[in-house]
Specification:
single chain, eight-stranded parallel beta sheet, binds pyridoxal-5'-phosphate
């Protein structure tokens, strides 16, 4: 088998500043590809579909830390709660409450990131500035003791306009900093993918989610 994945992973890790966590996005990739990264020492993987994620969790080594990075429907939370390491795409208070409820039942505190809508592109998903303020001010976080909001996640517009991408990441960093003032326990700002992670890191990201630069293009 080729060692392309291990090689690209090693080069990428070498290039990341200290303190930046790499999430290897393995969606659509098979077990062999994931195991090549695993044997190279990598343990943090991201998937965006619940069924694919749970199936891979069942089959693959149990010390892998699985991140859910895609949109999550409330009725599927229960499948992830027993094992998920970080739910990155929490985009509504209702979803947060469901995770709290399921976490309580399972006896786990679930680490979450709030997905924030920063891109120009229309999207149904993600908090906007006002909704974040409301969540902070409303006090509901204080009564949810089975979720731990570790920080924020966002995606920039898919564009060649790097100034725009930079501006969008900077706007998320500003929101994260405001959140930190109210909740100093937060410690994760997840932004940056294969095409824009360097800009994201320059703008303050400490977690990048990278798929195609490690595993090759997806079909
Ligand atoms: C697919 C995906 C990534 C990785 O994208 P690449 O361009 O392959 O690095 C990162 N974040 C999310 C939310 C994704 O869905």
């Amino acid at each position: 088998m080729s060692m392309e994945i291990a090689k690209r992973l090693a080069e990428l890790k070498e290039s990341l500043p200290e303190g930046v966590t790499l999430v290897a996005v393995s969606k659509t990739k098979d077990d062999a590809a994931i195991m090549e990264a695993y044997r190279a020492g990598h343990r943090v993987f991201g998937e965006n579909r619940v069924q694919e994620l749970t199936a891979k969790y069942e089959r693959l080594p149990k010390d892998i830390q699985w991140h859910m990075i895609g949109h999550l429907q409330r009725n599927k939370v229960k499948y992830l709660v027993p094992f998920v390491s970080l739910i990155q795409g929490v985009d509504s208070p209702r979803l947060l409450r469901e995770i709290d409820k399921r976490g309580r039942k399972a006896g786990r505190v679930i680490d979450c990131l709030l997905q924030v809508h920063i891109a120009e592109e229309d999207s149904k998903f993600g908090f906007d500035r006002e909704e974040l303020e409301e969540l902070l001010a409303g006090g509901s976080l204080l009564v949810m003791d089975h979720v731990r909001v570790r920080g924020m996640m966002g995606m920039a517009t898919f564009t060649d306009n790097t100034a725009q991408v930079r501006r969008e990441f900077a706007s998320l960093k500003a929101l994260y900093d405001r959140w930190l003032e109210a909740d100093p326990r937060a410690d994760i700002l997840s932004m940056g993918m294969s095409g824009d992670y360097r800009i994201a890191i320059e703008e303050g990201s400490n977690m990048v989610r990278i798929g195609s630069s490690i595993f090759g293009a997806r079909d």
